[in-house]
Amino acid sequence: MYYINKKNILPCILLLLAPTLVGADELNGADTAWILTSTALVLFMTIPGLSLFYAGMVRSKNALSVLMQCFAITCVASIVWLIFGYSMSFSEHPSLNQWMGGFNNLFLSEVTRESMSGTIPESVFVMFQMTFAIITPALVVGGFAERMKFSAMLWFTVLWMILIYFPVCHWVWGGGWLGDKGALDFAGGLVVHITAGAGALVAAIVLGKRNGFPSTPLLPHNMTMTVTGAGMLWVGWFGFNGGSALAANGDAGMAILVTHISAAIASITWMVAEWIKYGKPSVLGIVTGMVAGLGSITPASGFVGPMGAIVIGLTAGIVCFTATNFMKRTLKIDDSLDVFPVHGVGGIIGTLLVSVFVASQFGGAGLAEGTTIADQFGIQLTAVVAVLVWTLIATFIVLKVTNLICGLRVTDEHERSGLDITQHEEKSYNM
C-alpha cells in the first residue's frame, strides 16, 4: 500500500495536477485516433467515392478512363506531396513566406516519429493534408472528362498542384497572407473548391466542347454507380470537415452536424427546383444538390451553427442549380460534370456566408475581437477574388504549357471511339 508522507506528498500533488500541465505539443490519443479515421474517410472520398460518382456520369465508353484518372491522380499527387508539396504548403520560406512555403522539408526530411503538429503526430497531419491535395485535382477531372489525353492529364495535375494548390494552401493554412489577414476557411472552400471549380472552368473552355455538345444529349451511363459514389462522398465528407478541427472536440462535432444539415437541405432544394422547372425530380439532381450543399458548407463548417447550415444549404441548392443551367444552356460551356457551378460557386457561397453566420448571435463560434460582420465579409471577398483570379490565370498557363509538352486533347476519332479503348486499350464492360 502507498502511504502519503512528507517525502512523497509533492509527487502526489504533481500527479493530481498532471492533466492541467500537459503541453500543447504532447500527443493526445483521442485527437490522433480521430484524425487517423478522418484521413481514411477523406481518401475514401476520392477512391472509390468521387471515382464512382464521376464514372457513372460519363458515357460507358469513357467510364474506365475516369476511374483511371482518379486513381492515377491519387498516386501522382501523393508522390508530389512527399517530395516537395508538403514543404511548399506548410514550411516557412525565409523571404517569401506570405506567398509560398519553403523547401527545407523536401522528402519529409524533418518529419520523424517524434515530431508533433499540435496534439497529433506530424506524420498524421502530413497524411491528412495529403488527402486534400489528392481530391482537389481529382475534382478538376470533371471539367475535361471524355476529351483530355491521359498523358496530358498527368502533366496537368503535377503543374497545377505546383502553381495553384500548394501556393493557395500556404496562403490560407500555411502561414501566408490570407491566413494572416484573417480569412476563414475551415476545411477548404478557398483551398479546395474554388481552386478546383475555377480550374475546371478554364480547362473546359480551353479544350472546347465535346463532340455533339450541346445539340446531342450526353447522358450518364450508370446512375446506380453515381448514387453509390455520392453516398460515399457524403459519408467521407464527415472526415473532410470534422477532421479539419484537428482534434476530437466540439468544433469537430459541430462541423459534422452542420455538414449533414447543409447536404440534406441543398439536396432537397435542388430536387424541388428541378421538379418545378422540368416537371420531374431526377436522381442526378438530388445527388448533385447534395454535393453542392457539402461544398458550400465546407469553408464554414467549424465556424457556424445549425442556423447557418440551413441558410447555406438552401442558398447552395438554389444558386448552384441556377448556375448549372445557366452555364450549360445559356453560356454553352461544356464543363462536363458541372465542377464550376457546383464546387466553384458552392465554395464561393460558403466562403462569403461564413462571415455572417460565424457571428455568435446566429449560433456561430464568434467573430474575432474588434471585427464586425462587414469587416469579415470584406476579408472573405478579398480572399475569394484573389484565389479565383490567381487560379483562372495560372490554370490557363498550365494548360498552355501542357499543350506544348504533349498536346491536350484526343483526336476526334479517338473521342468518338471512347477514351477507354483509345487511351488504355480496355473496356469498362465486356458483354
Q: Kindly provide the radius of gyration, computed on alpha-carbon positions and rounded to a whole number of angstroms.
A: 23 Å
Element pattern in H and E: HHHEEHHHHHHHHHHHH
Examine the coordinates and then state which fold CATH places here, giving the name of the CATH topology.
Ammonium transporter fold
- For the biggest β-sheet, the strand order reads 1-2
> Total strand count, please?
2
The largest pleated sheet is described as: 2 strands, antiparallel
Could you say what the CATH architecture is?
Orthogonal Bundle
Q: Which range does the strand content fall in?
A: under 5%
Give start-end ranges of low-pLDDT stretches. Answer: 9-24
Percent in helix:
55-70%
Overview of this protein structure:
- With 431 residues, this protein is mostly helical.
- The chain has 15 helices and 2 strands.
- It has a two-stranded antiparallel sheet with strand order 1-2.
- It is globular and about 60 Å long.
- The protein starts with 8 loop residues before the first helix and ends in a 7-residue tail after the last helix.
